[in-house]
Write a structure and sequence with these properties.
Radius of gyration: 18 Å
Helix content: 40-55%
CATH architecture of the domain at 2-153 and 189-216 and 257-271: 3-Layer(aba) Sandwich
Strand content: 15-25%
Number of strands: 12
CATH topology of the domain at 2-153 and 189-216 and 257-271: Rossmann fold
Distance between the termini: 33 Å
CATH class of the domain at 2-153 and 189-216 and 257-271: Alpha Beta
Shape: globular
Strand order of the largest sheet: 2-1-3-4-5-10
Length: about 290
């Protein structure tokens, strides 16, 4: 299968390039400098050149706080860009895969969100991603929407300046105090695990909405505490209320995800987040020793 991955240098994009290639796909990796999803001509050029069987759209405006003041930019990439890609997929009979987010939910539930739950985003970023979901469904007859959450991976996140795991480890090694909110729940997700699950779905040409998050949930404080434990660091983080850490964009209090649609053979890729974290830190350590 010839698979085009747009946004190939981000956390999930890089993981998808690695996993899809190892699974035997003929991967075309396209970074932001090679494809601008907000420009339909840019999108059409790469489709005409490569004629992919499947397209994974990892391109996104992910600066959640900035999006509150830059809504036009967020919608240009996350919604209008998604429409341009979906239209090209339709023209070339390509499976259209759109990567979305847990921030399409409002966090009001006291349980993890499933694919059947109603979307009610609280901020501009989440609204722009939900608009992208709707446009993909409208403009492409064959589509797959993959919602991911709280990603950590080898590439970090260009828009956010790294990932949470690396930031916590870096702060601890530098002797900085670590204060983390303890009243916001989410599902930490290893980018490689999400990519493995996504490849399985794409290679079987599955369609629909799927939640691809590691099993379980925790608060950001609980996540930080486990990071420090697994990394063998004796720094003790301080739990704080989100009221002590105000942000421009409102965040859902609970954006943890689980799936009611994945088969057992896909679920195996989405191990408990604690195991995924340990694997990431081991792999990170091996890379640094090379």
């Amino acid at each position: 299968m010839r698979t085009l991955i747009i946004g190939s240098t981000g956390q999930l994009g890089l993981a998808c390039v690695e996993i899809f290639r190892s699974a035997g796909h003929d991967v075309i990796a396209a970074s932001h400098s090679e494809v601008e999803v907000a420009d339909p001509q840019s999108v059409n050029r790469i489709f005409e050149r490569d004629r992919p069987d499947a397209l994974v759209n990892c391109a996104a405006y992910v600066r959640v706080n900035d999006a509150e003041d830059q809504a036009e930019d967020a919608f240009r990439v996350n919604a209008i860009g998604a429409r341009h890609v979906a239209q090209a997929c339709t023209e070339f009979s390509t499976l259209c895969v759109y990567v979305s987010t847990d921030y399409v939910f409002d966090g009001a539930l006291n349980r993890p969100y499933t694919e059947e739950d109603a979307c009610r985003p609280l901020n501009v970023y989440g609204t722009s991603k939900l608009a992208g979901e709707y446009l993909v469904q409208q403009y492409s007859p064959r589509w797959l929407i993959a919602r991911v959450a709280s990603l950590f991976g080898k590439a970090g996140s260009r828009g956010k300046g790294g990932n949470f795991v690396d930031t916590i480890v870096s702060h601890a090694r530098a002797g900085r105090p670590i204060r983390v909110v303890n009243d916001v729940r989410m599902s930490p997700t290893y980018a490689l695990d999400a990519a493995r699950a996504l490849e399985h779905l794409v290679s079987r040409e599955k369609t629909g909405v799927f939640h691809l998050a590691n099993l379980g949930s925790c608060t950001w404080f609980e996540f930080a505490r486990r990071i420090l434990e697994v990394a063998g660091l004796d720094t003790i983080p301080e739990p704080i209320s989100s009221l002590e850490y105000p942000t421009k964009a409102q965040r859902p209090r609970n954006s943890s995800l689980e799936s009611t649609k994945l088969s057992p053979e896909v679920r195996v890729f989405l191990r408990p987040w604690e195991d995924a974290l340990a694997a990431y830190l081991v792999e990170k350590d091996h890379e640094q020793r090379r």
